Amino acid sequence: MHRATGAARAPCLSSPEGFQGALIFCDSASIRVGEPTSNLKLRAGQLSAKQREKGVRMPIVLRRYVNQRFLWRLVSLCLVFGAWELAGRKPISIAFPTFSSTMLALADLIKEGTLSSAYAVTLQPLAIGVLIIGILGVVCGIAMGLSRTFEWFTLPVFIIVQSAPMAALIPLITFLYGIGLAAKVLAVVLMAAPVIVLNSYKGIRNVNPSLIQMSRSFLGNRQQEIAKIIIPDASGLIFAGLRLGVASGFIGVVLAELLITPTGIGDLITYYRAIAEYPSMFASITSIIVFATVTVSLLQWLENILFRPERRGS
To answer: pTM of the full predicted structure?
Structure first.
């Protein structure tokens, strides 16, 4: 007797006796030629039942994994908040409030509308700065990746800006642009630019060479190669750069509001520190941390949906 096996549904021709020359597909189990049709139908039903059971089991395992990750994150947050509460009750310092008093102060700020008014001012330079550098930074990074000459002229500039301490540049920005909206937008641009530009540049440079060779073998011109091969393959790292640029933009706007002129969230932090309302001061700081974390997490979730794992950024 001959036996036919296959893990990927290999075609098996049956003998004409009892099968009328039908074409049978084999799964993981072996099927003997000449086996009665009734036995084959029974075994096919058993295989499909096992496959259905396996298909049901996988989502259950996935749900358990997701629930376990969420549980560990919840435990981590509880430990941090518990340590914060204990440190505030000890107390470590009179300027360090408890977690419970901070949350109460945060609820009061939200109820009074103080927090929403502050964010209306803070988000304005952040949105303008991220929009400007999001467009120009991606274009500049792509140009650096495509042109060696452009890379030689611009890459050192962004490396220097990335290495320079932002707090040291704030007085220079204030001297050049005053204390208005333009100075805060420039602070956001300077913080976010190196991340967005360098990620876009690395994305272009790390495109799979085999894809470019395939494009050239099909006689694709340079414009088609860039538009249909290089940029789509680099899109994961480019989006990751935008996500990290938004995170850096939050740092830039808070530094600008603290060091240039107290407005928005920076004004709340400075004011409550001056009048020794430390729970409200910590509530303002906590709110900007939570807002930035939620924003970046949503962008990361969007990145996981839009791009395959091998094309995502780090």
So the answer is: 0.69
